[in-house]
């Protein structure tokens, strides 16, 4: 955390103790110890860790409790558990039409287990993936590196739009990034996919994905409008410059005909 973020950390620390029926404000040395202990962690990760502790424990937090949410198996940095990561990867491997977002650690595990998958041993591949994935996740968390998600695109345009919208809704990919992954500006087709997701029996997650798709379509429309405006402005500027140049040349020719030095 930065020096300007320390008051926010103290506030969340005081809140955690107060909601557990304790007061830490009378012990400035303890507060200083907490600040020193977690100085290298970003405020959003600390806030998420304290929130999880409040939900799961009635006792005041100890540093070990917060570390468990920051670095351990229950970490709140957005990286999926090993089993969830394997499931996400398997969906991509089994169906070339599928699109999905993977973390760097998932890609390391995929690279390691692919030769075993090629031999047809899915059980052995899963064991290899989990071992490699958990090692890389642990190392990344020790380095305080945030999760980095990148997309793998499948062959089906409809699934691509749906999965990318789900990734945006989950906070794994940004809308600007996703907008550049479509083969061309097609807000109408994106909205058609959104409409397909909004059936009368659609689950809550489908409506969230549809809302993300509609937001993406609106952003694409604004981007197209901006591009058109820039293009028209560039054309008008070029035309004006051409007219000025033609006038200058005509003036030079006229002066030459009149016998002036040019």
Could you explain how this protein is built, in words?
The chain has three domains: 3-70, no CATH class; 77-154, no CATH class; 156-262, no CATH class. The chain is built from eleven helices and two strands, in the order H-H-H-H-H-E-H-H-E-H-H-H-H. The protein has helices at 6-19, 28-37, 43-56, 63-70, 82-94, 104-118, 122-142, 157-169, 175-179, 187-197, 204-257; strands at 100-103, 149-152. It has a two-stranded antiparallel ribbon. The longest helix has 54 residues, at 204-257. The chain is extended and about 95 Å long. The mean pLDDT is 81.
Low-confidence parts, pLDDT < 50 over ≥5 residues? none
Number of strands: 2
Q: Spell the H/E element sequence.
A: HHHHHEHHEHHHH
Number of domains: 3
Task: Please state how the strands of the largest beta sheet are arranged side by side.
Answer: 1-2
Overall pLDDT confidence: 81
Q: What percent of the residues sit in helical stretches (DSSP H or I)?
A: 55-70%
Q: What structural category do the secondary elements indicate?
A: mainly alpha
Query: Termini, distance in Å?
Result: 68 Å
Q: What is the strand content?
A: under 5%
The number of helices is 11
- So what's the overall shape? extended
Q: Strand count, sense and closure of the main sheet?
A: 2 strands, antiparallel
Please describe the topology of this protein:
Elements: H1 6-19, H2 28-37, H3 43-56, H4 63-70, H5 82-94, E1 100-103, H6 104-118, H7 122-142, E2 149-152, H8 157-169, H9 175-179, H10 187-197, H11 204-257
Antiparallel strand pairs: 1-2
Quick rundown:
This protein has 262 residues and is mainly alpha-helical. It has helices at residues 6-19, 28-37, 43-56, 63-70, 82-94, 104-118, 122-142, 157-169, 175-179, 187-197, 204-257; strands at 100-103, 149-152.
């Amino acid at each position: 955390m930065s020096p300007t973020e320390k008051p926010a950390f103290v506030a969340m620390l005081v809140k955690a103790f107060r909601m557990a029926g304790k007061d830490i404000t009378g012990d400035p040395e303890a507060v200083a110890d907490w600040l020193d202990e977690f100085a290298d962690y970003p405020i959003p990760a600390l806030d998420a860790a304290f929130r999880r502790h409040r939900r799961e424990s009635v006792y005041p937090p100890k540093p070990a409790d917060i570390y468990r949410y920051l670095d351990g198996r229950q970490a709140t940095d957005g990286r999926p558990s090993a089993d969830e990561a394997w499931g996400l990867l398997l969906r991509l491997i089994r169906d070339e039409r599928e699109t999905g977002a993977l973390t760097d650690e998932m890609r390391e595990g995929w690279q390691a287990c692919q030769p075993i998958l090629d031999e047809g041993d899915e059980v052995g591949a899963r064991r290899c993936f989990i071992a490699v994935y958990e090692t890389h996740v642990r190392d990344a968390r020790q380095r305080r590196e945030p999760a980095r998600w990148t997309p793998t695109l499948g062959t089906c345009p409809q699934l691509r739009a749906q999965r990318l919208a789900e990734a945006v809704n989950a906070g794994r990919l940004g809308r600007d990034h996703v907008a550049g992954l479509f083969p061309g500006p097609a807000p109408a087709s994106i909205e058609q996919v959104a409409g397909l997701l909004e059936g009368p029996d659609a689950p809550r997650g489908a409506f969230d994905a549809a809302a993300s798709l509609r937001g993406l379509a609106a952003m694409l429309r604004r981007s197209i409008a901006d591009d058109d405006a820039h293009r028209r402005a560039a054309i008008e500027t070029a035309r004006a410059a051409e007219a000025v140049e033609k006038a200058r040349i005509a003036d030079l020719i006229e002066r030459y005909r009149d016998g002036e030095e040019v």
